[in-house]
Every structure is written in C-alpha cells, then in structure tokens.
Amino acid sequence: MLNPSANVLAAKPERSAFSIRFQRMAPVVRSPTEPGGIDAALIEICFNSQWGGPFLKVVGMVVKLLVRGDIIRIAIILFTALSVLIAQCFIAMDVLWSSFAKAYLGAAFLITIGLAYRWLGRDAGVAAACLVTAQLVIFSSFGAVLNYAGAAAHRPLYDAAIANLDKAIGLDWLGYVTAVKSNSTIGALLTAAYNSTLPQLPVAIAILAFSRRIARLDEFSIAFMLAAVLTVALWTAFPNLGELQFLYANGKPVPPFQLALSREEALQVFRVWRDGPGTVRSEEIVGLIGAPSFHTVMALLTMRALWGLGWVSIAAVAVNVLTLLAVPADGGHHFFDVAAGAAVAVFAILAAKALLQGRDEREGSVFVAPVGQAG
Fold it and tell me: What pLDDT is recorded for position 14?
C-alpha cells in the first residue's frame, strides 16, 4: 500500500481515470525519498485531473487525426533522431540545433495548418500537403546530421575500388563527361535537370496532394525517407566521394566544362570526411554521399510518383531521364553510384508498399469533422 503522507497522488482526492488506471497497473509507485522510487510529483503533474486531463485530451485529439502514413513517417523520424543521439555518444561531433530553428518553425506552422484542416474536415489535399512537407523537413534535418555522423566514423574511402569496377566493365568516366558536356546546349540542359531534383520534391507533393492521390503521396514520401536512411547507412559502411571529388582530392585539374558541382564544393566534401564534421550548422550542410547516388533515388521516385498523370508524367520523365544522364557528369559520380541508387530506390518503393499494405485507398482523402466542429 502507498503511504498517503508520503505520496502526492494520495493528497489529491480528484484524479483522472487515467491516473487511477496507472496506479492499478503499477501499484508499487514509491515515494521519491525511497531508494529506486519514482518522483510522485511528476506523476501528479502528468496524470491528475487538473494538469494531465487537458494534456492527454489534446494528445488524444492529435493522434486521432493521424493516418497510417503519418504514423510511419513519424516512426522513421524518431528512429533517425535516436540514431543521431546515439551516434553523438561515440563520435566527436557537435550540432548547432538552433541553426535549424527556421526549418522547425516552418514545419510547426505547416503541422498546425494541416491538423486544423483535418479537424475541421476541410480540404484533405491541403492537410496532406502541409503534414507531409513538415514531416519531410524535420526528417531531412536529422538525416543530414546523421550523414555527417557517418563521416565522423573516418572509414576508408572506397572510390578507387569503385572506379576500378567501372573500368572493368568498360565504362570511362572522363570520356563520358567529355562526350555529354562538349556541346554547350546539351551540357546546360543536363546541369539544369540535375539542379532541379530537389525543387521537384515539393512540386510532386503538391501535385499528388491536391489531386487527392493521398495513397501515392504516402508511398512516395515514405519511400523517400526509407531510401535516405538506407543510403546514409550504406555510405557510412562504405564511404566514397565520387569520381570528380576523388580526382580533385588527388590534385587533378578542373575539367574544361560547366558542371553543377564546383571544385570548392567537391573539396569541402573531402574535408568533411578527412577532418570530421566539427560543429554541424544547417547553412553549411553539403551532400557527402557518392554511392548510392541520392539524385538517382529522387529522380526514380519522382518519376514513379507522377507516372500516369498525363503531361505531368511526360514532363517528369523527360526531366528526370536528363537528371540520370547528368548524375555522373554534373554530380561527379561513378557509374556504380547510379546503379546503387537505382537499387536503393526499388527497395525503398517495395518497402513502402509493404508498410502501407492493407491501407484503405480512401484513407486521407475524406475527413469527417468531429461533432460540433464542421463548418
């Protein structure tokens, strides 16, 4: 039995139903003065009728507004954030989280709008666009930091082995770059397509959301997250910088072509791997990964997401085929990087479909407002 004189819970006659159930499940909650005891004051704040009731009610309301896609994305975010925290226990890396404040504030604003639209039973497309975008913004911050944590592991580079593999199957990187970049018009188109990969992401989200293709949006966004986590994990185990970065790191001259990746950017990637990330700031983050190529992943995911949507899919295929052709040149990637990126994309799509299996295709398309909240 609990000692009423030592237990704050016993001092309050009014308790929430959750508090009563909590005590029934854990009847040996001890005073904080006892060895190994739980601070009963914290339990009082969290679970009594005055404080815990409204808090738990709000949490319950938010959870009820989440669909399966939201829950899967949030689970991946939590996994990535936990991975960052664990990594920081073992590596020399500081993160200036305040530098991500604008991104997090923007995400919080979008989450508020998205949940409000669901609560009121308004436009499902607006709700989905806001929530998915916010979740991807938060995920990307943790994913980028996790990538830098992988660099801090200082694993040996595999670029020489990958370059030899390309050569063994008859692929000549410099010859390919020379061929596709000798024509200035073609070269400029490839560079523009390569640089469009990231801006295509919010465009694809908006198209899928506002056309009420919520199931496809869930698959697209979850596949993106899974692919990013897998890409970072593979790169951490087998780090590589890419053909162009590796050449610059070994003192080779700048090719006489216009490339999306500048020499300074390439050398910055090398310095992060060589010297460690130091203090990670949002505005200083660069893409570190050679293989698997994440530009390849995004290009393939975007083409699949927008497939079958008339002129939109035609434009998506045209731009992203150019992107795939540009990856070895403008991104400085090995050809192997492109193949590895394609494999990761296929795996991520299959995994996302498996996670969403059994999902009602209408889920997220129509929301019923709570009683008294419609209007």
Answer: 45
Question: By the 8 A CB rule, do 199 and 189 touch?
Answer: no
DSSP state for residue 126 in the 8-state scheme? H
Task: Give yes or no for residue 60 having a pLDDT over 70.
Answer: no
Q: How many residues does the chain have?
A: 375
| Residue 351 burial (C-beta neighbours within 10 Å; 0-12, 13-18, 19+) | middle
User: Coil, strand, or helix at residue 97?
Assistant: helix
**What percent of the chain lies above the pLDDT cut of 70?**
77
Query: Is the model more confident about 369 or about 242?
Result: 242
- Verdict on whether the full-model pTM lies above 0.90: no
CB 35 within 8 A of CB 1: no
The DSSP secondary-structure symbol of 15 reads B
Q: How far apart are CA 341 and CA 289, in angstroms?
A: 11
Where are the domains positioned within the chain?
8-56, 68-355
Lowest mean pLDDT among 209-223, 243-257, 276-290, 300-314: 243-257
Spatial contact of 125 and 216, defined as CB atoms under 8 Å apart: no
pLDDT tens-digit series, residues 295-339: 999 999 999 999 999 999 999 999 999 999 999 988 888 899 999
At 24, list the tokens.
């029934």
Find, among 301, 303, 297, the residue nearest to 342 by Cα: 297
**Other beta carbons less than 10 A from residue 66's beta carbon:** 15
Distance CA 40, CA 7 (A): 6
Which residues 6+ apart lie within 8 Å of 298 measured at CB?
A: 197, 198, 200, 201, 224
> In sequence order, what E strands does 218-298 have?
278-280
H or E segment and range at residue 243: helix 243-249
d(CA 9, CA 42): 10
Angstrom distance (rounded) from CA 190 to CA 137: 27
Cβ–Cβ under 8 Å, residues 130 and 65: no
CB atoms within 10 A of CB 248: 23
Q: Which residues lie closer than 8 Å to 329 by C-beta, 6 or more apart?
A: 176, 177, 180, 181, 187, 190, 257, 259
User: In terms of DSSP H, where are the helices of 49-123?
Assistant: 52-65, 68-88, 101-120
Q: Quick count: other Cβ atoms within 10 Å of Cβ 94?
A: 11
